[in-house]
Amino acid sequence: MAARAEVGGGRDAVSALDARWYTDPEVFAREEREIFAKTWQFACHASRLGTTGDFVAFPVGRVGLFAVRDRTGAIRCFHNVCRHRAHELVEGSGSRPFIVCPYHGWRYGLDGGLRSAPGGDRTPGFDGGRIRLREARTEIFCGFVFVNLDADAEPMAAWYPGAEEELRAFLPEIDGLAPVAEFPVEEACNWKVSVENYSECYHCKLRHPAFSSGVIDPDGYDVRSRGHCLRHAAAPARPSGMAYAIDAADARASGYGSWFLWPAFSFQVYPGGVLNTYHWRAGDHRNVTVRRGWYAPGGEASERIEALARRDLDTTVAEDVAIVESVQRGLESGSYEPGPLVIDPEGGVMSEHSVAALHGWLREALGVAP
Q1: Taking a C-beta distance cutoff of 8 angstroms, is the pair 217, 352 a contact?
Q2: How far apart are CA 29 and CA 189, in angstroms?
């Protein structure tokens, strides 16, 4: 639950969070331990692990991991740390029949078990059969690989009930999609500032004219929470105002949808069935990288997607960077006192009930009472 407003709005109004939630490095350190280490985090798209031995290294907070396709065809995620003396095992992406530590040559199978260690056979008491890489829980969600460092965490279906089924129904070809392009966008703000901005369209008409006239009809925009997912839905913009050509007879042109998976990933489907994603990766308490991914059948680029991605970067993305960095400066100014959120019980575009939901999940994760 969000807190009640302390400044202007009455005792029953729901308050925004105090500035310290976005400016205090100790709060961010708690988030790394209690949120990022205990929630489902995006690793990579499964198409990047197409054959046995393919791997991709990635971080979750300060923890390095890598995803790999094992010899049974399964995708697994391991901590990117040698069990010998902690050297990182892999960098970037590639393909290998074994995982070999570049420090002393310890060799691991694609199942994480130690296969050989130079000199180990002459070491009294050395039992290589008992040594395995530390493994993290892994799930595939519509072709996207997610990992959770918490062995006791509930599955994604419990965290985001119905989301995978809804996304497949909205975009039936999603399993045949693959990455076309990714654009990392640096934002000088706390990760929650960026996530909150994405999670409401209260500001869309004022700050996103191209999105509001060329992609969606903002008057029909709404966001609803279910589990730890925010489901965005909107009617498409009028065909005459579309930012790119759409066949009006195409069923995929019937609307816009987004599924935000708390805390740091979102699927976004434009009218016409174009999938893009947001992946928030927090650097520290005042910096976040938002990776904007674009997908197409078989990973085939097209002029249509290229034009949409470029327009998106030049308009909505650039506008959002200016917004969130201004908010961060205001939070750090020392003069901010949290005011009331605008919450319409009926929902709709002019309501911040989705922001209140984010604040509730944050407090829940950190064990903080409203």
Answers
A1: no
A2: 16
Express each pLDDT in 99-156 by its tens digit: 999 999 999 999 999 999 999 999 999 999 999 999 999 999 999 999 999 999 999 9
Q: For the structural domain made of 20-37+158-366, what CATH number should be given? A: 3.90.380.10
Question: Could you give the 3-state DSSP secondary structure of residue 234?
Answer: strand
Vertex 218, ends 267 and 234: CA angle to 5°? 45
Residue tagged 């039992």 (tokens): 127
d(CA 207, CA 236): 18
Query: How distant, in Å, are the alpha carbons of 68, 112, 230 from that of 121?
Result: 28, 19, 54
Nearest to 82 by CA among 32, 133, 45: 133
Q: What Rg do the C-alpha atoms of the chain give, in angstroms?
A: 22
Count of beta carbons in the 10 Å neighbourhood of residue 118: 10
Dist CA 304 CA 311 (whole Å): 11
Q: Domain 41-152 sits in which CATH superfamily? A: Rieske [2Fe-2S] iron-sulphur domain (2.102.10.10)
- The full DSSP string for 276-300 is EEEEEEEEETTEEEEEEEEEEETT-
pLDDT in tens, 315-329: 999 999 999 999 999
pLDDT at 7 over 70: no
Q: How far apart are CA 253 and CA 282, in angstroms?
A: 34
Distance CA 309, CA 306 (A): 5
> What CA–CA distances, in Å, run from 85 to 82, 101, 131, 260?
6, 10, 13, 39
- How far apart are alpha carbons 128 and 133 in whole angstroms? 12
Residue bearing tokens 């105002």: 241
Amino acid at 51: T
Helix (H, G, I), strand (E, B) or coil at 367: coil
Contacts of 33 (CB under 8 A, 6+ apart): none
Mean of the per-residue pLDDT values of the chain = 92
Q: How many angstroms separate the CA atoms of 159 and 153, rounded? A: 9
Structural domain boundaries in the chain: 20-37+158-366, 41-152
pLDDT at 211 over 60: yes
3-state secondary structure of 126: coil
Helix (H, G, I), strand (E, B) or coil at 311: helix
20-37+158-366 shares its CATH topology with 41-152: no
